[in-house]
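Subject: Protein record for review, amino acid sequence with backbone structure tokens
Why sent: The fold of this protein is of interest and is recorded here as tokens.
Notation: Tokens come from a learned vocabulary of local backbone shapes, not from coordinates.
Attached in line: The record itself begins immediately under this heading.
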Amino acid sequence: MQLRKKTAKLDIPRNMNLGKQAKDKVTGFSGTVTDYIEHLTGCNQYGLIPKYDGSGKYPDTVMISEADLKFNDYKEHPKNTNLGKHAVDGITGFEGTIIGYAQTPGQCDRYCIMPDCEPDKTNKYPKGTWLDDNRIKINDKKKKKKVDTKKTPGACCPALP
């Protein structure tokens, strides 16, 4: 079930596993897929939410590595071709490399933008931020960064707000 068409501005296909049932192969935890996060480093994750148990507390979404999940009806999805590209926030001018992409069943897709480190000034690790996809402008003039996902452990996006 496709709940949203392609993002008009960035032309990203929807992940067709959103809304499906999945189970963690390690723990046995199961639920409905509510989120998908794709990282430049290849450490992609799905958010699963269990059914409400009647306790009065809304269940928490649990983020689980894509490799650890078994789907009842898995659909292969194309990878996001914007990962590694340079982008600018159209509102604030904040800029950096796209290192993460998050999809939800609704209208709230987001990109994680990580600015470059400035070792000659402070040599502090830069702080990335998640921005709505309709705010992002791709700067095709800057060279796309590539990461060897076989040698790079995990992703470094901050947690989604």
Notes: The radius of gyration is 17 Å.
